[in-house]
Amino acid sequence: MDLQTVLPVIWFGVIGFGVLMYVLLDGFVLGLGILAPFAEDEAQLDHMMNTAAPIWDGNETWLVLGGAGLLAAFPKAYALLLSALYVPVLLMLIALIFRGVAFEFRFKARRAKRFWGAAFALGSMLAAFAQGVILGALVEGMPLEAGRYLGGAFGWFGPFPMLTGIAVLFGYALLGSTWLVLKTEGALQKNARVLTRPLVLVVVAFMGLVSAWLPFLDSRIMARWFEGANVLWLAPVPLLALANALLLWRAVMDQGRDARPFVLTLCFFALGFAGLVLGVWPNIVPPALTIWEAASPPSSQGFLLVGIAFLLPAILGYTWWSYSVFKGKVAADAGYH
């Protein structure tokens, strides 16, 4: 195989890894915002936000990596996705900025603390919903002809993207509640456990509903799963997801396991992401734009790969360092300055 064949595969893996890391790491912070209305008082919301205060902004590095990598390695796919999904992408970015400003301002505010708490919740909800809509529109497939997008500004709007938007909203809420189970004790942890149980059922139900909807889409995802012998070697993914869901429910019901619900929720998201990637492969924009058709020249991809060989270990290193430094439970009286 030559570089023109291999390099797009490597970059597809790099971008996919970056997106997955963003979903797993920033997902629980967005989940904290989604759960903010369930805080008993301002002090408890302080406690919730303090569990993520030292590490939340570093998580967004992965989103930048995924977006910049897509632009550099697959410019045609970047142009198509941005032109097709301009509205939900813009909504996501505005919501993330709003969430970030609210996160910082709330700890400094005196009179407007409740307002910034509401802004933190609203920004998190809108960002989560927009990300789900983008996912659903991508899975559903883009109307393409000769590599050009044929839809309008709202061509992404439809029942399936709305469903995936709501599903991701609840999924991030589950990540947030299990994170609180991991990082807190006392009344807040008890409240998080109470919220986690129905969230597990809702997220599993949405996963089943989305999977049941896939055969009715035109993005060829189900064809990938059932062509030839594919069903045999792809079957472990849904089976593992089902087993993971059962283990997650047992972990949630077990009061003595604080880390297990969060770890199993991360695994559930990773398995769902793996199923998505296997379904769309080798397309980067379903139903018909492959990674090789969308790729930049091998010389560009090779040059950029040298940079990512240094950048990716650095991001992984400081991510691991920040989480290891701030590991353990976060006390209710912990402060953020």
TrEMBL record:
It holds the Pfam family Cyt_bd_oxida_II. GO terms for biological process: aerobic electron transport chain. Its main location: membrane. It comes from the Bacteria. It is a multi-pass membrane protein. It is found in: Cell membrane. GO terms for molecular function: electron transfer activity; oxidoreductase activity, acting on diphenols and related substances as donors, oxygen as acceptor. One of its GO terms (cellular component) is plasma membrane. InterPro entries: Cyt-d_oxidase_su2. Keywords: Cell membrane, Membrane, Transmembrane, Transmembrane helix. The chain crosses the membrane at residues 6-39, 85-103, 115-139, 159-182, 194-216, 231-249, 261-281, 301-321. NCBIfam families: cydB. PANTHER family: CYTOCHROME BD2 SUBUNIT II (PTHR43141:SF4). Belongs to the cytochrome ubiquinol oxidase subunit 2 family. This is Ubiquinol oxidase subunit II.
